[in-house]
């Protein structure tokens, strides 16, 4: 027959539609093949390399500066590490704070020889610097020098001078104002940053040494007392300068007067720059005719540290002519006899023993006295 002779033609879709079992087998085979290919590729692919280990020092650690705005600030445990100067960029508040820190471990981790800090509070020029250069010569490592001059004054010393690079960050100082004591505290704070400094002497541009360095150094280092002149003086220039508004922190019977020029040890120096109780009273209530430089330190030391104080100054001054200022020595006044009188003309106690060596320094010597002082220094002053 005609239909029997033709071959049947069937498409895949028709086949799948007519054979549901076969369709399920094909779909299963397709999913199985896909999974098999993924598994083989995962096995054949090489494992990723392990993360590279960096040295410990390549991992930066976060830094936390004490004060980011003071990029010039630096504190040296021992100032021997820096010979180029003492400028640090700190303002008074941070300076006093840093200087007030006291090590609890008294044994130093480095070699340390006690030094004397010579602090010069000046208006400007140091006309007697050549005499002081001669005094310090050959005694390097036993002293430090700090100069507080007016901010606008820029005196340059030759590199060979001991005063080269020794000016501190300063502020304007007015005679008879509390700013003088602020300058003294500023000098002390700078000197305290050097842990080798054990004695602190305040001097002016008109001061001279009366003895050679070894005598001055031994006298200061071996002393068991401080040298802050303090006495009770009735009358208008003593108790008359006291303000009742200072009560109850400072009472009239505690009020003292004395010379501005002192020599103190490290322990007392820390107490002076750390004082937040008595000094603010002077800042607020001591106005002319009250002169803070003549009353603050004598009053403060007598109230708190009187047992360790000698109640005398080491700076010889002539008040015999009276008036608000001592005698000013001009060139013709300078004689070997005058210098000898300053050196041994007193009577005092030193470490509980009587002595006639009571003054290590003297003032006020004008600039024109320098040639004669240099001439007599070797014969009379012994340097």
Helix content range of the residues, please? 25-40%
Biggest sheet: strand arrangement: 2-1-3-5
Beta strands, count:
9
Helix-strand topology string: HHHHEHEHEEHEHHHEHEEEH
What would you note in describing this structure?
With 383 residues, this protein is of the alpha/beta class. Helices cover 33% and strands 9% of the residues. It has helices at 2-5, 12-18, 20-44, 92-99, 129-136, 179-192, 213-221, 266-274, 279-285, 292-305, 336-344, 370-381, and strands at 115-121, 143-148, 197-204, 208-209, 263-265, 315-316, 348-350, 353-355, 361-362. The strands form 3 sheets. Strands 2-1-3-5 form a 4-stranded mixed sheet. Strands 4-9-6 form a 3-stranded mixed sheet. Strands 7-8 form a two-stranded antiparallel sheet. A hairpin with a 2-residue loop joins β7 and β8 (353-355). The radius of gyration is 41 Å and the shape is globular. The termini are far apart. The model is unreliable at 1-18 and 51-84 (pLDDT under 50).
In short:
The chain is an alpha/beta fold and 383 residues long.
Give the key terms:
three-stranded mixed sheet; 9 strands; 383 residues; four-stranded mixed sheet; alpha/beta; 12 helices
Helix-strand blueprint:
Layout: H1 2-5, H2 12-18, H3 20-44, H4 92-99, E1 115-121, H5 129-136, E2 143-148, H6 179-192, E3 197-204, E4 208-209, H7 213-221, E5 263-265, H8 266-274, H9 279-285, H10 292-305, E6 315-316, H11 336-344, E7 348-350, E8 353-355, E9 361-362, H12 370-381
Parallel strand pairs: 1-2, 1-3, 6-9
Antiparallel strand pairs: 3-5, 4-9, 7-8
Helix pairs in contact: 4-6, 6-8
């Amino acid at each position: 027959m005609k239909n029997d002779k033709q071959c049947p033609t069937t498409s895949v879709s028709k086949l799948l539609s007519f054979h549901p079992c076969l369709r399920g087998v094909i779909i299963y085979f397709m999913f199985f093949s896909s999974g098999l290919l993924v598994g083989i590729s995962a096995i054949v692919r090489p494992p990723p390399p392990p993360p590279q280990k960096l040295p410990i020092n390549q991992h930066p650690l976060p830094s936390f500066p004490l004060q980011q705005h003071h990029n010039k600030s630096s504190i040296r445990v021992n100032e021997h590490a820096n010979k180029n100067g003492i400028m640090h960029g700190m303002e008074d508040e941070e300076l006093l704070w840093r200087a007030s820190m006291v090590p609890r471990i008294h044994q130093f981790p480095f070699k340390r020889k006690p030094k004397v800090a010579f602090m010069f509070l000046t208006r400007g020029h140091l006309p007697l610097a050549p005499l002081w250069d001669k005094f310090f010569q050959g005694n390097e490592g036993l002293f430090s020098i700090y100069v507080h001059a007016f901010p606008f004054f820029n005196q340059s010393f030759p590199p060979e001078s001991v005063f080269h690079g020794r000016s501190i960050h300063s502020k304007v100082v007015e005679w008879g104002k509390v700013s003088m004591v602020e300058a003294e505290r500023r000098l002390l704070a700078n000197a305290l940053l050097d842990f080798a400094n054990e004695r602190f002497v305040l001097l002016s541009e008109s001061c001279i040494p009366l003895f050679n360095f070894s005598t001055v150094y031994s006298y200061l280092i071996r002393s068991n007392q401080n040298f802050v002149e303090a006495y009770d003086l009735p009358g208008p220039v003593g108790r008359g300068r006291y303000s009742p508004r200072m009560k109850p922190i400072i009472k009239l019977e505690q009020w003292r007067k004395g010379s501005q020029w002192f020599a103190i040890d490290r322990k007392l120096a820390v107490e002076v720059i750390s004082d937040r109780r008595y000094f603010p009273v002077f800042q607020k209530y001591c106005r002319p005719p009250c002169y803070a430089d003549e009353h603050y330190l004598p009053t403060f030391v007598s109230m708190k540290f009187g047992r360790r104080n000698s109640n005398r100054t080491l700076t010889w001054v002539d008040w015999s002519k009276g008036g608000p200022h001592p005698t000013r020595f001009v060139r013709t006044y300078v004689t070997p006899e005058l210098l000898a009188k300053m050196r041994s003309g007193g009577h005092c106690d030193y470490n509980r023993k009587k002595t006639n060596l009571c003054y290590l320094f003297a003032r006020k010597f004008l600039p024109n006295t320098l040639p004669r002082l240099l001439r007599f220094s070797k014969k009379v002053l012994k340097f």
